[in-house]
Predict the 3D structure of the following.
Amino acid sequence: MNTFLNVLGIAALIALFLLPTLAGLARERRIDRELREAERERGDAPPETADAAAARGGGGGPPPPKWGRGDK
């Protein structure tokens, strides 16, 4: 009986630590789903971030360094 209570106590502690995390993940998934539905209804493409623009070569910022070419 004592072992069962120990296992039950540990399971309760694990649940107490995991419950906020699981609730947060569920909330994030709900928000993502709502955003996707809103984009689909409006017919818009997702907004472009600065990282995406930089990956295509735009977006400003300093040019990449010229390493190993002798340019200084």
Remarks:
- The two ends are 76 Å apart (CA to CA).
- Residues 62 and 68 are 18 Å apart (CA to CA).
- The mean pLDDT is 82.
- The chain is about 65% helix and 0% strand.
